[in-house]
Amino acid sequence: MQDAITAIDRCRKPVIAAIEGACIGGGTDIVIACDIWFRSKDAFFSVKEAGMGLTADSWTLQRLSGIVELGNAMELALTGLRFSGQEAKDLGLVYQLLPLQAEGNLDFSFVGFSFYRY
Questions:
Q1: Which residues form a coiled coil (predicted)?
Q2: C-alpha dihedral over 16, 19, 24, 30, to 10 degrees?
Q3: Domains and CATH numbers, the chain
């Protein structure tokens, strides 16, 4: 699985993550490898391995400490605490809060740039 996450990290094109609801363990590993994160109001995050008596994957720690301060990265990775989308934004992990459309999908019309399909 680590090779798949590393492929996301090394992708030459921007990789954008949209998070709605829970983003736990491996899900957090995947979005940490992405370039930009968007979240819904109800999104929350956790590096859950620590809560199960395991240590987070070394790549998780390395990538996370490249995004946030080392102390914050260690706290998130070693405690397994759940942190909210707003806390993720305050740490610099999340780019923008996106509202939900009536169908329950994230509404990207509020994003300050355009998405193109190739």
A1: none
A2: -10
A3: 2-100 (3.90.226.10)
Give whole-number Cα distances, 92 to 46, 48, 86, in Å: 15, 20, 10
Tell me the torsion sign for CA atoms 87, 106, 49, 2: negative
For the chain, the maximum distance between any two Cα atoms, rounded to a whole number of angstroms, is 43
* pLDDT tens profile 84-117: 878 888 887 777 767 666 566 666 555 555 554 4
Q: How far is CA 34 from CA 10, 13, 20, 74, 103, in A?
A: 9, 10, 15, 19, 26
> What one-character DSSP code corresponds to residue 12?
S
**Across the strands, what pairs with 16?**
36
Question: Across-strand partners of 97?
Answer: 39
Does pTM surpass 0.90?
no
